[in-house]
Amino acid sequence: MTEFFVIITISIPVNNGTGAMHSTLTRTLRVSTGTTRSAIFEHVFKSMPRQLQSGNVMFFSAEPNRIPH
Questions:
Q1: 34 located within any domain
Q2: Most C-beta atoms within 10 A of its C-beta, which of 20, 52, 54, 68?
Q3: Number of structural domains, the chain?
């Protein structure tokens, strides 16, 4: 198992498209060795509230949660 630190930022239109709401989620996940970034993205994206799942992903990062020596 490897621990990953994940950040995802999603933007959705508000006020009839005249503005945007941005939501950022940070999460630490333990995943099996060999899990792909794509699989991590799908897991995190599907765990977002439904209204955010229709938004645009502005940023995504999944990095091992450790500081290199």
A1: yes
A2: 52
A3: 1
